[in-house]
Amino acid sequence: MGACAPKPPSRYDQVQKETSQKGSSAVSKEAVNGSQFNKFFPKSGNGYSVVPSQEKKGFAEHKVNRGGKNVAVLSINDTISNPSAAEKYQQSTTKIAGYPALPQGQTGTGVLVGDRFQVKAQSRDPSFTAQDRVAWIQKFDLNGLSKLK
User: How many alpha carbons fall within 13 Å on the CB side of residue 80?
Assistant: First the structure.
């Protein structure tokens, strides 16, 4: 008889609802689709191959390989979902290609483009130096990215 009665929510549904409402890592509806970032990444060349590795709303990542080995990871992140990521660049005193730049830990370098998009290069091998990270960030089409809305 009670087959038509609505099933009470499981405790998992309740936890899902509570954690979703917190929105701690929620991606903004306004975030740019990751596939739109691909055209701004550097191209393969000089013995390096640049390979797309991850793409989702608000984020895209490409691996940089040399001699069959992953030496770095390049990424573009839409900070609309994480405004504090953009805010930290306000303290920056360094610029790369005219954009505010900051170190990202011991092995990363990032710039903020158009007050919104964080472009990062992260070393995965000691042969990929801080200077390499700066050079690779400069290979992005940063001006094109700055026009993206």
Answer: 14
